[in-house]
Write a structure and sequence with these properties.
Structural class of chain B: alpha/beta
Number of helices of chain B: 22
Order of helices and strands of chain A: EHEEHEEHEEHEE
Oligomer: heterodimer
CATH topology of the largest domain in chain A: Alpha-Beta Plaits
Low-confidence stretches of chain B: none
Shape of chain B: globular
Radius of gyration of chain A: 18 Å
Strand order of the largest sheet of chain B: 3-2-4-5-7-6
Low-confidence stretches of chain A: none
Distance between the termini of chain A: 28 Å
CATH class of the largest domain in chain B: Alpha Beta
Distance between the termini of chain B: 74 Å
CATH architecture of the largest domain in chain B: 3-Layer(aba) Sandwich
Bound molecules: thiamine diphosphate
CATH architecture of the largest domain in chain A: 2-Layer Sandwich
CATH class of the largest domain in chain A: Alpha Beta
Largest interface: A-B, 17 and 17 residues
Number of strands of chain A: 9
Number of helices of chain A: 4
Mean pLDDT of chain A: 93
Chain lengths: ~160, ~575
């Protein structure tokens, strides 16, 4: 089974998220990430869904999504030529001055940013594709990760 | 323009949709709506005795007429009582609009008295549903609801209507047309794909049509019949497809699947081409999937893309409406000679007919056969409950016209048949309507006898009374060593629990009991003369089984046969 990425344009109405989520849960599929936001048309939202499934299940999911009355368009971006990005916030322990210095180096080298500094921790923000984000997580892991928040992937097909 | 209330808007919208009948039950939050409905002369309200009855009646009405059925219930328990009926309609793709009253919109989410989240509860069992929060959206919502319920692959739509929206005022203008950018079913089949079907038929030696309820839903029986005859191809139908093709034609093989005819199942396994039309390869049809139709190329015509290649991999899919696609197909089809194939099937029909022990005992199959003999030239609708009664009704009645078979296929809902028969009778007042029932199922919605008596709805309930939950007992007999765990309804066959004759009489209906085979005909004839509902309580053999039978999960040519 592999991760697939689906981008769905849906009507911006209450209850639509529940319909989409319900479609996955009713069939026992786990959603890895789901990001929703308005598009250029305020009546339309885009949902980017990452989930794990085989080919046959993926086919069914696409058809079932299309069948929902509030879904306007479904695109399968798995392996497609597209730009995808995700935003992450990582809170890392920074007890000693030395640790903090090291973290700053990592952050600089990755082109990330420190967005909050506390007494015992710093919070790093990073935007990028999956690889970049996973790399950052691994680099700061030795210092002690306290909390992570991720937006989930968003994607647009390339021209 | 003068403003009118939400209740009035709602009723005017139903009138625009040409709704003539509503089945329902009142309650607090529906008071404003019911008060206005009381004055509406063009709509007849039918007061069922349970909301489940209302949902099934709306569904039976829809199946018999092809129109959208409408049912209504109050918030909370009234609304949740509709759920089984909505799920039944959903599984069989039946167009109904279910309306539920809801608490005041400002109270929603507060656990208010008789509040239930109906949009949440029915999301997976409706084609779509709405909570109307603003009276100005009401007319548009009703328009969309009827449109969605009745187009594409039909299905139930629920409208949840808070009491304050019924009371609020707005201008009324019913939308003339509808354009939903997110909902556009495909009706035309792809021309190239249709050409591929024609080619596949030309190459085939042993083609078989497998038609389902979709043919009836799209009113395509005429086109299907023309297709089968023109192409000279034998045809089997699913249980939902009974009546889609005249069973008195020699091309007909009857029903396939778990309790299908032996020759239909053998034909599936032997065919080199299967043309599925408006059917969905349900597990009760396919049996063990990896051995289903091993030699066949598969064509699948369906309006719902998600039905295609869901269970069985399809070689030639055509997304479109059965009627439209068949019409197109009929233009290109030529008659071919399949005499060898027809002869093989003829041989199977002769060797392995549908049969039961024909002795002096009162057997349930005989009852269905006699109903068939006495009514087959009339305009008849057969509704059923669920279990053995349903299978015998499917096997031993000869269906020749669409919308004459009304039965819960997908959900298999006991208690469906009687209220559905009432709905069918209301939609088709000139038809003779039977509910072929089991003594278990009929008790699940027997309360509707009150409405049937009062409204003089002459539905005939033929109870095949075996004193047990027969279909479950059959499985226990065959697969659980005859351990009849909790399936006996009446141990003693002479003391009745209930006494259905007295029960009928207590409602003011006619009740007839038949214990001997020789009295079956007279009882059926007597029931046909009644102006109101009748119960005929046929006390039949307890341990009769439905055969042939494909055990669950087996290949469909591995059939168990009974004694003949
Ligand atoms: C509401 C509901 N509950 C339980 C079942 C499971 N079930 C299927 S057939 C059956 C027995 C039906 O008995 P009866 O109505 O007497 O009909 P028979 O099989 O004896 O003809 C049962 C319990 C069901 N289909 N529906």
């Amino acid at each position: 089974m592999e991760n697939f990425v689906i981008s769905a344009l849906v009507e911006n109405k209450f209850g639509v998220l529940a319909r989409v989520a319900g479609l996955f849960s009713a069939r026992g599929f786990n959603i890895k990430s789901l990001a929703v936001g308005e598009t250029e048309d305020p009546e339309v939202s885009r949902m980017t869904i990452v989930a794990e499934a085989d080919e046959k299940i993926l086919e069914q999911i696409k058809k079932q999504l299309n069948k929902l009355i509030n879904v306007i368009k479904v695109q399968d971006l798995t392996g497609a030529d597209c730009v995808d990005k995700e935003l992450i916030l990582i809170k890392v322990k920074s007890g000693t001055a030395k640790a903090r210095e090291k973290i700053v180096q990592v952050v600089d080298s990755m082109g990330a940013e420190i967005v909050d500094i506390g007494k015992k921790s710093v919070t790093i923000e990073e935007t990028g594709d999956e690889h970049k984000i996973n790399a950052l997580i691994e680099l700061v892991r030795p210092y002690g990760i306290l909390e992570i928040a991720r937006t989930g992937k968003i994607a647009l097909q390339s021209e | 323009m003068a403003k009118i209330t939400g209740s009035e808007i709602f009723i005017k919208s139903l009138c625009e949709e040409k709704v003539k009948h509503i089945f329902g039950y009142p309650g607090g939050v529906l008071l404003p709506l019911f008060d206005k409905l009381y004055d509406e002369k063009s709509i007849t309200f039918h007061l069922t005795r349970h909301e489940q009855g209302a949902a099934h009646a709306a569904d039976g009405y829809a199946r018999a007429t092809g129109e959208v059925g409408v049912c209504i219930a109050t918030s909370g328990p009234g609304a949740t009582n509709l759920v089984t009926g909505i799920a039944t309609a959903h599984m069989d793709s039946i167009p109904i609009v279910a309306v539920t009253g809801q608490v005041k919109s400002t109270l929603i989410g507060n656990d208010a008295f008789q509040e239930a989240d109906m949009v949440g509860i029915t999301r997976p069992i409706t084609k779509h549903n709405y909570l109307v929060k603003d009276v100005r959206d009401l007319a548009q919502t009703v328009k969309e609801a009827f449109h969605i319920a009745s187009t594409g692959r039909p299905g139930p739509v629920l409208i949840d209507l808070p009491v304050d929206v019924q009371l609020a005022e707005a201008d009324f203008k019913y939308p003339k047309t509808i354009d939903m950018k997110s909902y556009k079913p495909t009706y035309e089949g792809h021309a190239g794909q249709i050409k591929k079907i024609v080619k596949a038929i030309e190459k085939s030696e042993k083609p078989l049509i497998y038609a389902g309820g979709g043919v009836i839903l799209s009113d395509a029986s005429g086109e299907l019949t023309a297709f089968a005859k023109k192409a000279n191809i034998p045809i089997t139908t699913t249980m939902m497809g009974l009546g889609a093709f005249p069973q008195n034609n020699k091309l007909d093989l009857g029903m396939l699947g778990m309790h299908g005819t032996a020759y239909a199942n053998l034909a599936v396994q032997e065919a080199d081409l299967i043309i599925a039309i408006g059917a969905r390869f349900d597990d009760r049809v396919t049996g063990r999937l990896d051995t289903f139709a091993p030699n066949a190329k598969i064509v699948h015509v369906d309006i719902d893309p998600s039905s295609v290649s869901k269970n069985v991999n399809v070689d030639i899919p055509v997304i479109g409406d059965a009627k439209v696609v068949l019409k197109e197909l009929n233009k290109h089809i030529k008659k071919r000679d399949y005499s060898k194939w027809h002869n093989t099937i003829k041989k199977w029909k002769k060797e392995l007919p549908l049969t039961y022990k024909n002795d002096n005992k009162l057997r349930p199959q005989y009852v269905v056969e006699e109903i068939n003999n006495l009514t087959k030239d009339e305009n008849v609708i057969i509704a059923t409950e669920v279990g053995q009664n349903q299978m015998w009704a499917a096997q031993y009645y000869t269906y020749t016209k669409p919308r004459t078979w009304i039965s819960s296929g997908g959900l298999g809902t006991m208690g469906y048949g009687f209220p559905a028969a009432i709905g069918a009778q209301i939609g088709k007042p000139d038809a003779i309507v039977f509910d072929i029932a089991g003594d278990g199922s009929i008790q699940m919605n027997i309360q509707e006898l009150a409405m049937a008596v009062i409204e003089k709805i002459p539905v005939k309930i033929a109870i095949l009374n075996n004193g047990c939950l027969g279909m479950v007992r059959q499985w226990q007999e065959l697969f659980y060593n005859r351990r009849y765990a909790f399936t006996t309804l009446a141990e003693d066959r002479t003391n009745y629990h209930p006494d259905f004759v007295k029960l009928a009489e207590s409602y003011g209906a006619k009740g007839i009991r038949v214990t001997e085979k020789e009295d079956v005909k007279e009882a059926i004839k007597a029931s046909l003369k009644e102006k109101g509902p009748v119960i005929i309580d046929f006390i039949v053999e307890r341990e009769e089984n439905v055969f042939p039978m494909v055990p669950a999960g087996e290949s469909i040519d591995r059939m168990m046969h009974g004694l003949a």
